[in-house]
Amino acid sequence: MALPLIKYGTGPTILTFVRGPRDFRAYYASRAHDNVATGGLRERVVEHHDLMVSFAMEALRVDDDLAAWGTFMRWALDGGTFEFHPYGAGLDYWFRCVLEDQGWAIERRAPGIYAAQFVLRVVPDEKEPASVAEVMKRFYGVGA
């Protein structure tokens, strides 16, 4: 399986995944408002179903890729959009994302090895995937 990559900033800068992500998943997070009447009826007003992508990086190494992730996170925390390529350069398939997180806390796993969680919100534009299933298929290299 090819590893994902992220393109960000001017130039652009390419963040390559040295090791694969764990627990990669795509899902919907709805922006909705509910009104519940005294009689129990519920009225739901849906603004949008946001497509989200989350994953964990379990072995970011101080002597390898941790610095590159730190540089990307400093940029992404400012709200910049970036290209997420779920199957790396193997398929000409990507979509724009913004970072959902408001901070970045790494967790120590072993001396010099850290883990971090990431949540991305897909930008609703012409590159937005059609569904959660499409994101997962492309992550596994299925489809052209």
Number of strands: 8
Radius of gyration: 17 Å
Largest sheet: 8 strands, antiparallel
- Count of DSSP helices? 2
Task: Describe the secondary-structure layout.
Blueprint: E1 5-8, E2 13-16, E3 22-36, E4 42-61, H1 66-76, E5 82-85, E6 95-99, E7 107-110, E8 113-122, H2 132-139
Antiparallel strand pairs: 1-2, 1-5, 3-4, 4-8, 5-6, 6-8, 7-8
Characterize the structure shown.
With 144 residues, the chain is mostly beta strands. The protein has one domain (5-30, 46-139): Beta Barrel (Elongation Factor Tu (Ef-tu), domain 3). Helix content is 13%, strand content 46%. A hairpin with a 4-residue loop joins β1 and β2 (13-16). The longest helix has 11 residues, at 66-76. The radius of gyration is 17 Å and the shape is globular. 19% of the residues are buried.
